[in-house]
Amino acid sequence: MPISGETTVTVPTRDDGRDEPDGSVTLTVLADDGYNVDPTMGSGTATVRDNGLPTITASIADATAREGNDLEFVVTLSRTSAYPVEVYYATMPIGTAQAFSDYTSASSIVTFNAGDTWKLVRIPTRSDGVSEGTEEMFVDLSGVAEVIPPASRLGQPEYRNGKIGRQRGKGTISDSAVTRPTVVSIVSRVGLQGQLGARTLEGETAQFHIVAYPAPSSPITVNIGVTEDGSWGPLTTVPTPPVTVSGSTTHFQIISTDDSTAEPSGRITATVEAGTGYVVGPQPSAYFEMWDDDNYVPTLPLRQGQQAPPQQQQQPSCTVQFPANAATVAEVTGWRDEHPGNAVHVARWNRVLVALGVDVGDPNVTPITLAESRANENVHSSHRWGRVTAALEAIAAQCPDVPAGQPELSIAAGSGITEGGTASFTITASPAPASPITVHMGVGESGDFGAVGAGTVQVSGATTTYTITTLDDTTDEPDGTVTAVLHGGDGYTVGSPSSASVAVADNDAPGTTPEVSITGGSGITEGGTATFTITASPAPTGPITVNIGVSESGSFGAAGAATVVVSGATTSYTIATTDDSADEADGSVTATLQSGQGYTVSSSQGSASVAVADNDAAATSGVSLPGTAEAPLSNGVVTVARPSGWTGSGRIQFGGGSKARDKSSFTTLQIANVNDDTFEVTWASRTAGTQQLTLEWQPMAGDTWQPSDGGAQDPRVLTIEDPSSTATPTPEVSITAGSGITEGGTASFTITASPAPADPITVNVGVSQSGDFGASGAATVQVSGATTSYTIATTDDGNDEADGSVTATLQSGNGYTVSSSNGAATVAVADNDVPEVNVTGAAGGTEGGNVTFTLTANPAPASSLPVNVTITASGDYGVSTGSRVETIPTGGSLTVTIATTDDNVDEPDGSVTLTLNGGQGYTVGSLSTETAQVLDNDEPTQQQQQQPPPTPEVSITGGSGITEGGTATFTITASPSPTSPITVNVGVSQSGDFGASGAATVVVSGATASYTISTTDDSADEADGSVTATLQSGQGYTVSSSQGAATVNVADNDVPEVSIAPGGGITEGGTATFTITASPAPAGPITVNVGVSQSGDFGASGASTVTLSGTSASYTISTTDDTADEADG
User: Rounded to two decimals, what is the model's pTM?
Assistant: First the structure.
């Protein structure tokens, strides 16, 4: 300390490049001999503002190409980086397009140079000459990292992990030429003071970068929307939107306005909006963090007894007795003059000097107010602001004639309202303004209540009322709030609270689940379309999918969709029929509503039928005379073809006399149903055995026969025989189910007819489902033999839902009966959409408080999802560590809260880390671990100050397992965090042959550091193995005795390809030899399935499987030596 009694202490800070909350540095004077420490001024705190950039985010767009051309996927970054950025991508084995045959699979890294914001990933497609329509494939992003070069030639680069926005891009491959749309995205370009990033001061220019790919063939006009969080306007966009885009990149600027109002940081956001000639890309918006440049004024203490100079301009002079903890003019002036080239810095200090009565030479400078100083004292936790406040309090108390500064405004909420009412707020001005001031307002809401409020309000007294109106709708919705926000402006400052919310209660009765019913339309003729009307009561608030089953009475080829979307009170549904040429009885088609989600089925109108009329004339058939027919002894009917000469006026009769033949063997013998083509011979009973009847034509001139008409003509004999005892019985049909499937697959069923029908029969089938799998199957199936296959297709959606089933039900029809015990069969359908779980949003705090993490599941789980996590901690803050289970609700998000303990021990800051572990029902995403900082709040004792910092103990944990060719990730933890970077030695080993390699050292600067081991994707089939990272001893740290090594499992991805080659020819009765070859040789024995067939009849037989333990194995088929002469085979 010099004899002047003052000295400056400089505390350097480290620029780590990370985006993190603002912090502070506190300097404390420790007691010692030769001086005393002021009990009220023994420490001071300076705020450290973070200048790190927001986490970089990578997204991928969809792509379209004609087969034979490249699919070009656009990968964009949310901002530029001062370092290279690596984005990891891979093609996925899903979609209708097939790897190798339709496109080239890939797994690689796309590298962005410093300053780049977009790159292309090209996936070649193959032209196979086959007409196969449009096919789809997918590319996924799996990781993103900024690569920060090492500080020295021998050092290792640091990989700073980013985030993934739109993870999956869809590639559409077309047989015919396609026109690729221009995809437009946007990123922020230049940040604070020309640095790369996305942060700027109010009054400066935010520059945005539009990316259009492919570049438009002619200029397109892109619509740009601009929004702000805070009050940074008026905003000027150059050029004025819409922006004309002629090439792949275009720039535009948003210029903000620099005011003098202190306000929280906020954002300016630019968004690409839909328009003509382009589609909105995967990065539709970008933003700049806006920093306020007002109200950040450090201060120094003034000494007791100093006289304040006259107030600036018209202020009268006033002598003030300042307390010991008040600020002095000389010290404040010194602080102002430290940075004379920084206009913002100088302006802040001048406001403090004017408040202390100094004429700074600029009459437009407004004095800082007591309210502002108090607010800064609370926000910045600095003793300097306390001293400024002490000085201003002394002036206010001892100089009551000095006019007050600008009024400070706050706002309070009134009572809650019901939707449709008006919310009231009270704005308080302290002190009341001397003349009316215009206050800028903002309006927000939680819910959908149509909140409307004025953008400004006149404040002319101590209190003013502000109102927000709401709308009374008819929609049942959760209760919410409306919020009024005070924005900065001229002539006032915004105090606390700056916003207030009024509760809004919904007044609409809860909606009821719609009940669906169905009615049939008018009858149709076969070949027409039957129409039905589905009614939902009440009408659904959003679209619902209703399941429907289709059946028929008759054989009309009825077909209808298995589901229909109902969006309003009524919806039409149709069943198509087929116009055949078969004469058949009239029938009907029936639509039956089936249960599902979001509705109930009417108990009285759950099905409806529409009549179907046959339009085919009866074919001429019957026994030709003379002829023979089989007929029963009782209730016999024989249809006889009418001879061509038996036309005109006359009648058909039985012959009499000698022609009566066996007529007496029948009772109630009649001729009936005479028409132009046929007639029938019927009887009540007859004698067993072969009987003969004579039929003849009797002409008539009038209504009755007369002798003049002549005798009977053209007698013909009908021979009737007893029925054959070998008549074929009616088949009974039954159905059995195949194996379970995964959604998107096809369920198989087997229909069995017993006995097999002599001729094909048409069997009616109904389709239903448990769940929502888009089940569809044919309404009929032709059965020609003993068994027939039947299938139901399902749809692969993206929703996580409960497993379900699809059911095929045999329905009655002509020519068969349905089994009473096996008339329906069900195939289980497994959902394949497993949520991906990530951990984000780690929020730290001071010891004694809580740290939080956010777990997200996408898609949201169908039911509560237990997730395995591990909690680790650095430091001694009473954190409950170890493995635990957290349950994510169906909403898809969960906040995990970890408590810490507030002790009295000064110790290094620590951290709490949450790591996601694998489990059932979910996968772990790329954001598998997050760390929240825990700040110590205790001052060190003198003894602690004299002690060297403790030596960190380093430990290591492994990440999730990988497939060969992937990169294994490990987390190195140092406890406590090193006070300066340490270099940790690491050894790499492996179980198996995966070409494992990793850096020999890693620099640990904080509580945790990442470490990776890369592997090689070879073509050799081998056993699964692992890679291990082992921490080795070195300087500046010790190695944990229990966690000094960690292992990550590595799965082999090579499957042998087997082929077969024949040996020499043989003679029947010999054994044919084949050689089965595997390439590469399997890591262990594999069982190969073999089928045996023959051309000819040689009694060929062979084993159905063969075990292959090496590169090749022999396989034999034996034949039989018979005595039949036959062709070679």
Answer: 0.28
